[in-house]
Predict the structure.
Amino acid sequence: VQKLLGSLNWIRPYLGLTNSQLQPLLDLLKHSNDPTEPRILNKEALHVIHMVEQCIYKKFVSRIDLSQLVQFFVLIDKTVPFGALVQWNSEWDDPLHIL
């Protein structure tokens, strides 16, 4: 679970997920200091894994369009800031490109 959450932390902003949404997975780490201890995935944790899977399935990384401005967004989820490099163009099929 610890390795999974470490990997998810890198892609979480790209997927548009917050720490709050991942909380059921984070809760699995609360009761032990041993990262190798087996964990049992409850219904809520499985729901989060399926949600992450769907987000990954639907997303892709955009290439930079040099004719558009690049913006850096800083977002805060329960006092935890994270950032994203983006481009916006209302004429694109998907107006928000996450770089």
